[in-house]
Amino acid sequence: MTDMPDLDPFDATALRLTVNLAALADNWRDLARRSGRARTAAVVKADAYGLGIEDCGETLYRAGARDFFVAAASEGETLRAYAPEARIFVLSGIWPGQERTFFDNDLVPVLASEEQLAFWMSVLSERGPYPCALQVDTGFNRLGLSVDEALALAEDVSRPTSFDPVLVLSHLHSGDTHESDGNRRQLDLFRTVSAAYEGIEASLSASAGIFLGPQYHFDLTRPGIALYGGKAVTGMDNPMRPVATAQARIVQLREAKAGETVSYGGSHRLTRDSRLAIAAVGYADGYLRNLSGAGVPLRSQIPAGACGFIAGRPVPVTGRITMDLTIFDVTDLPAGAVRAGDYIELFGDNLALDDVAAAAGTIGYELLTALGLRYERRWLGEDDV
Ligand SMILES: *Cc1c(COP(=O)(O)O)cnc(C)c1O
Question: Is 2.40.37.10 the CATH number for 244-380?
């Protein structure tokens, strides 16, 4: 029998994701500084944007976050162990059957409709006082009471004394576009609402809104994507540190001749003799099929596909991305620069998440939350970097 070396799973895996928790903590502190006098929450919905709610939640809590937002009650239940003293807001509100999850884990529902309010009042009549938050729609047309409903509720003297809103919030639809008139309009409406809820904290801005200036900060800011290194504001250099680096193993190198085609459909035809590197990542891993290279008629308006980064250089995706495998053109690298077993970076320290996302006509948020289950994950703490 041969001796088989005991490899660290991270060195044995075909797909790996490094999450730099030191950078995550730095990003939270940076956003807290930019939030000025407002407190800074942390949005950790969708498994902390795909990067792991346990480790990311604990890191953000240690960095000083005491207000967290999740989308679903189950996410709040998971987070509670890692953020023991924090206030955890559940953006999807509360639904029948979830009462125990909320009360046992001290989760605060964000109520966003008259139906939710009616249900909540009936819960309070049995439970007694319990905090909630109110979401008001100031122009997004997604979740929230209308401004009129919110103003009427603020003045409603018949509401039960057990009703205890601790936060009123709204969400900007164009916070990422600083020149949008929508921001100003939503700000004005939200000022009216927050004035009607005097003495109750107010929150308007996600990551992008933090950069719009202090008048958008109110009492609490709610960054998500910027914590994870993503770009919040279009047309501005991204000041955040990258947090996630995704890498895939090269499983084969092959030489192909000019005139041959590459991948499904044969729709990419080589114009020169080429060296191709086959990487063990595909659309099942969130490496979106729309990242496929030039010549693939999947995305007419986006001419170039994505690049990977290997041997110090970006190299283009060639032909269609398949479920488990992607082909990169490494012809321009020196012979021997890439070998089977090497890892190619998909995004991270060398390739900005948002540049890769843009090559698929999408945003960093989607690339992170689509990562899938096959990555071996490694979390780097402050001690490791
Ligand atoms: C997702 C979300 C956030 C965080 O948004 P980012 O753009 O990721 O900073 C904040 N508030 C609400 C209501 C959200 O749904």
Answer: yes
Residue pLDDT, tens place only, 348-377: 999 999 999 998 888 999 999 999 999 999
b/e map of 346-369 (b: 16 or more CB within 10 Å)?
Answer: bbbbebbbbebbbbbebbbbebbb
- Best mutation site among 222, 353, 354, 363 for ligand 1 pocket (most ligand atoms within 8 Å of CB): 222
User: Which of 171, 183, 367 is the pocket-test mutation for ligand 1 (most atoms within 8 Å of CB)?
Assistant: 171
User: Domain extents for the chain?
Assistant: 35-228, 244-380
pLDDT of residue 383: 67
| Short-list 90, 89, 136, 141, CA closest to 112 | 136
State the chain's mean pLDDT as an integer. Answer: 94
CA of 43, closest atom in ligand 1: 4
Nearest atom in ligand 1 to the alpha carbon of residue 169 is 13
Residue 343, SS3? strand
| Res 292: pLDDT | 84
Counting as low any pLDDT under 50, the low residues of the chain are none
CATH class of domain segment(s) 35-228: alpha beta
Is the whole-model pTM more than 0.85?
yes
Interatomic CA distance for residues 289 and 124, integer angstroms: 48
pLDDT of res. 228: 98
Cα of 334 from ligand 1 centre, angstroms? 44
CA of 289 to the centre of ligand 1 (A): 26
